[in-house]
Design brief:
Layout lengths: L1 E7 L7 E6 L4 E8 L17 E7 L13 E5 L2 E5 L6 E3 L13 E2 L1 E2 L4 E6 L9 E6 L3 E4 L14 E4 L17 H9 L4 H19 L40 H28 L18 H27 L12 H8 L4 H29 L3 H32 L3 H12 L3 E2 L5 H6 L10 E2 L4
Parallel strand pairs: 12-13
Antiparallel strand pairs: 1-10, 2-3, 2-11, 3-4, 4-8, 5-6, 6-7, 9-10, 14-15
Helix pairs in contact: 1-2, 1-3, 2-4, 3-4, 4-7, 5-6, 6-7, 6-8
Protein name: Rieske domain-containing protein
Pfam families: DUF455, Rieske_4
GO molecular function: 2 iron, 2 sulfur cluster binding; metal ion binding
Length: 456
């Protein structure tokens, strides 16, 4: 049995950390509020100020999903985490799940000055700590100069410089999910959009755990045909200037600016799928009855929107650190054209946006990251790695809900995907493919090999 010292208790303040060990294994440490504080003796993993610490393997035992990105809930007075890939649930203390498989958990001790974890290495080998890495949940928001608004409860919040616009407009407590989605889509200022998106996800998640969940408001409000933009110079996609290869500061700024534009549209796409398809029901032709979308669908896509807001905030802040700003270069709105083409069918929307565009990001992200690494731009690399890891879970979300629809309708998700790509995707789906990241997200080679869309 090895006792791994993670660090000073006073320094461990974030909600999640990844523990990298010398035997190539990874664990995840959760820092969570004590559910039922003991009146007398506290457990070895509890602190006097009301926090409790748990450690478990970082890869889901079902398919290797990243448990550091899991959803945390309370069931029967215990914390349960749900894998972001396939929603397998695990008790963080015992590792037990409702589906019969079990995750490895490891005792944590916070008595004294240091946090330690007990770890049993294979074959009794010596094991040491290589890296203790906080899981990024950082938003870099700009606060308005007017009335102060309560920001979402985030694990870490970094406030940058003051914006030119005033405060974001918040809806009242009676607003439905669709009210909020329409409001976010109609919000032109990017700082307000990311702030409101983070607020909606935080509020929706918090109310899901209560006896009064947020009303969905299915079909009560319509989304805009195209979300407005503020202060941006728009050009056609084929007229965008080439960003270069990342060897110069100018080139890296152009690359980050282009990615920031994609992330801003990605917020709208994830929010739009919640409101535009709120009344969707599965085709009853094969099963004899139809199903409406469960509430988990809306939570999953709000989580995607929240991640995209985080990504935009990181990229926008990095642009400013490099002496530029978002809006300093022209942008194109080509991604929304795919949304318009698939506005009539949820299956097509998931296929094109999540399983083509997002999956293509998995293919090119490592090459982009390497360009910045070769240029010695470690600050940008850190942000881009956060984005890449999150986007694996976004493709997983698309795959999960396309699979759910197909299961309800008695169809084959691979066939449905390829059929929709032939109809609605302009251009070819071609190598290189990041087969490992695609497989992590649930996309095996049947989805994308030897395949192309309609002629551009």
């Amino acid at each position: 049995m090895a006792i791994i010292r993670l660090g000073l208790l006073s320094d461990i303040k974030q909600a999640r950390y990844v523990i990298h060990l010398s035997d190539k294994k990874r664990l995840v440490l959760f820092r969570l509020p004590v559910i039922n504080p003991a009146k007398n003796d506290r457990a070895a993993n509890e602190t006097d100020d009301g926090w409790t610490y748990y450690a478990m393997e970082a890869e889901c035992p079902h398919a290797g999903g990243p448990l550091q990105d899991s959803q945390v809930d309370i069931e029967d007075s215990a914390y349960v985490v749900s894998c972001p890939w396939h929603a397998y649930d695990f008790n963080v203390e015992t590792g037990e799940s409702s589906v019969g498989i079990k995750a490895c958990t490891f005792p944590v001790n916070v008595r004294g000055e240091y946090v330690t974890v007990q770890y049993m290495p294979d074959n009794g080998a010596d094991v040491s700590l290589v890296k203790f890495e906080p899981v990024s949940e950082k938003f870099k928001l700009k606060r308005g100069t007017g009335e102060d608004k309560t920001l979402p409860k985030l694990e870490e919040l970094s406030l940058a410089t003051q914006p030119e616009a005033g405060p974001a407009k918040y809806l009242d407590e009676n607003a439905t999910l669709c009210d909020w989605c329409a409001h976010i889509l109609n919000t032109a200022h990017p700082e307000h959009k990311i702030e409101l998106t983070a607020h909606l996800f935080s509020t929706f998640t918090e109310k899901e755990r209560s006896s009064s969940p947020m009303p969905l408001g299915r079909g009560t409000v319509s989304p805009p045909a195209k979300p407005p933009r503020e202060g941006l110079s728009e050009v056609q996609p084929w007229k965008m200037p080439k960003p270069g290869r990342g060897g110069t500061l100018k080139s890296r700024i152009a690359m980050l600016h282009s990615l920031a534009n994609v992330e801003l549209w990605a917020i709208d796409l994830a929010v739009d799928i919640c409101i535009r398809f709120a009344t969707f029901q599965t085709d009853p032709a094969s099963q004899g009855f139809s199903q409406e979308l469960p509430r988990a669908f809306f939570h999953d896509w709000l989580k995607v929107a929240n991640d995209e807001a985080k990504h935009f905030s990181l990229l926008r802040a990095r642009l400013e650190e490099m002496g530029s700003s978002f809006g300093a270069l022209p942008v194109h709105h080509g991604l929304w054209e795919s949304a318009t083409m698939t506005a009539h069918d949820l299956r097509a929307r998931i296929c094109i946006i999540a399983l083509v565009h997002e999956a293509r990001g998995l293919d090119v992200n490592p090459m982009t990251i390497e360009k910045f690494r070769n240029a010695g731009d470690d600050e940008s690399v850190q942000s881009l790695e956060v984005i890449h890891n999150d986007e694996i879970t976004h493709v997983t979300t698309g795959h999960r809900w396309l699979s759910w629809i197909c299961q309800e309708e008695g169809t084959d998700p691979v066939h449905v995907f390829r059929n929709n790509v032939r109809k609605y995707f302009k251009g070819n789906i071609r190598e290189p493919f990041n087969a490992e990241a695609r497989a992590q997200a649930g996309l095996d080679s049947r989805y994308y090999e030897a395949f192309q869309g309609v002629a551009a």
